[in-house]
Amino acid sequence: MEMQFLYNRQRIEDDCLSWDYAFMETPHINVAIDELTFSLFQRPLHPELFQIYSQRQLKTEKYESIIWVTGCTHVVSVFAGDSCLTEVVSGPGQMLPHRGLIERFQFRGPRSHKCTLSKGVSYMTDFQVEKMSANLYRQSHTDLERFARNRGVFVKFPEQEDGGLQPFCYVDFEARRTELHIHTFAAYPEQVTMIKTQSLFDFQ
């Protein structure tokens, strides 16, 4: 079973590395915040399910991780031995499997979630939805883009600008030996709103 799992993981990594970013479709940004969905899977997901605009791969002696920016949404998969956890924030109409689903909910106010899995694997997340002024939105864009020069993944979509505000997604990560910390910031200009998430993958 472990060899099959590792084979599937390698196929996902190879497919992602060969992805052609030159012909990506424009992301569907103008959605109602409460139409967005958070999902947690105990399995990897195939890149063909998503439009991937940027990606990173991380590796420590305890785990490996693949991070995809999929518009103003994201996918984070973390592999440790024969275990895998995948966090997904997706828009309406996104095709996702049912197999391996642990939790799913929509963004309707602040929320926290914790779970402990077998083999010393635990996970926790919390998020908030912040309505902003236009000035605060612009300042947050500037600050996060500057911060991303040194760490994380920042993707903006100037062709989707609304009222002088650009949609963007920033995924900040800190890979420690037994823990992966993920902070995401997804900005939606039509609603002048930002979704912030914080997640911790822990492998003891």
Record the SSE blueprint:
Blueprint: H1 2-17, E1 37-41, E2 54-59, E3 64-69, E4 74-80, E5 83-90, E6 101-106, E7 111-116, E8 121-131, H2 134-147, E9 153-156, E10 168-175, E11 179-188, E12 193-203
Antiparallel strand pairs: 1-5, 1-6, 2-3, 3-4, 4-5, 7-8, 8-12, 9-10, 10-11, 11-12
Report on the structure:
The chain has two helices and twelve strands; from the N terminus they run αββββββββαββββ. The chain has 204 residues and is mainly β. The chain has one domain.
User: Structural class per helix/strand content?
Assistant: mainly beta
> What would you report as the Rg, rounded to the nearest angstrom?
16 Å
**Percentage of β-strand residues:** 35-45%
Element-by-element helix/strand order = HEEEEEEEEHEEEE
Summed up:
The protein has helices at 2-17, 134-147, and strands at residues 37-41, 54-59, 64-69, 74-80, 83-90, 101-106, 111-116, 121-131, 153-156, 168-175, 179-188, 193-203. It contains two helices and twelve strands, in the order αββββββββαββββ.
Key traits:
single chain, 204 residues, mainly beta, 6-stranded antiparallel beta sheet, 12 strands, globular, disordered N terminus
